[in-house]
Amino acid sequence: MTKERWDPLAPLPREEVIRAVERRNPRRVPLVMARWWGEGLVEQYGDRLQALERYPEDAAFLWIDLSNYADWNLPWPLKQEGAYDARCVLEDWNRLDELIACMPDPEADPRFEALKVQAEQARSEDRYIMFACWRLFFERPWEIRGMKTLIMDFCRHPQQVHHLNEALCNLYLGYLRRAVRELHPDGYWTSDDLGHQRQLFMSPKMFRELLLPYYQRIGAFLHENQMHWWLHSCGDNTEILGDLAEAGVDVFHPVQKGTMDEAAVACQHGKELSFLAGVDVQHVLQETDPQGVRAEVRFLIDTFDRPEGGMCIAAGNGIVSGTPFENIAAFLDEAVRYGSEHRAEYNR
């Protein structure tokens, strides 16, 4: 380990983030999605948040949004009213092939021109680059069918669920092929909120039958192209963490506090997964004081940062309005300070 002086507040070079993910002795615990400003926070604090930009963000994100279904030019009107998880893009499975035919063409997506500029800038700064798109094989299908309807579809219409996920898998792989060719990212960030606060939304058996085959295809492509897979999944994912690792997930986020046992997860899966441990935005950041926030950051680092690495740190989800500013600052400051000290002890 090199002994040169370095500024812990500077973004880590690309290789140091790779070292953390691949458990090769990074010099600091990376901060990734730590300055994640959620609903209402910018409106609450405005320019005051600029003071927190002194803390690093150790990955550069290149975002593609595939959830604007109005852009798909479907031959039927979209349902816009009601709760978000009850809206439905496809009400009739008989029109599934029509929906698939309207899916965007990755090779014709004009947004890559702007992403190439962002990627070039990130490379010039020696940043770790993440190609990123929310929603995968559970979240997007429930956007398309509505959550309650999709859960029933798992039992009533499994073949249609497979047909939809096969098409979505081809769509994602098309975007990933173009990203590899034109953007040269180091990692792929995506999400599937597979659990709620007590358990999975589906049985492990149903996950393995209806979703896992498509996870495996994504994982195989990423590893063939030397990309890390970062998966965000809220809720209790305990029963399928081994499946996710075998499918090719490299980094799991957030290990949601109160739904998963952090110590047990780190002990059982720390050799097969790295963790982007998320500081709890629901209670810890909202309800404790700065000292309590700092103690929680130290607990997470002590739990997940192995001697060889294997940990990054983040907000558990978007930090929302009502969160004390001092708590946000304490989280970021302690993540840098203790994340540096902890690695220094291991690398001494």
**Structural classification:** alpha/beta
Rg measurement, Å: 20 Å
Unreliable segments of 5+ consecutive residues: none
> What is the number of helices?
14
Please report which band the strand proportion falls in: under 5%, 5-15%, 15-25%, 25-35%, 35-45% or over 45%: 5-15%
The largest β sheet comes out as: 7 strands, parallel
* Average pLDDT, all residues: 95
Q: Roughly what percent helix?
A: 40-55%
Write down the secondary-structure element order. Answer: HHEHHEHHHEHHEHEHEHHEH
Distance between the termini: 9 Å
Task: Find the count of extended strands (DSSP E, 2+ residues).
Answer: 7
Shape: globular
User: How are strands sequenced across the largest beta sheet?
Assistant: 1-2-3-4-5-6-7
Describe the structure.
Helices cover 43% and strands 10% of the residues. The mean pLDDT is 95. The protein is of the alpha/beta class and 348 residues long. The chain contains 14 helices and 7 strands. The chain has a 7-stranded parallel sheet with strand order 1-2-3-4-5-6-7. Strand 4 (228-232), helix 10 (241-247) and strand 5 form a beta-alpha-beta unit.
Question: Layout of helices and strands, plus pairs?
Answer:
Elements: H1 14-21, H2 41-45, E1 59-63, H3 96-101, H4 112-124, E2 128-132, H5 139-145, H6 147-156, H7 158-182, E3 187-191, H8 204-210, H9 212-224, E4 228-232, H10 241-247, E5 251-253, H11 262-269, E6 274-279, H12 284-287, H13 290-304, E7 311-315, H14 325-346
Parallel strand pairs: 1-2, 2-3, 3-4, 4-5, 5-6, 6-7
Structure in a nutshell:
The chain has 348 residues and is of the alpha/beta class. It is built from 14 helices and 7 strands.
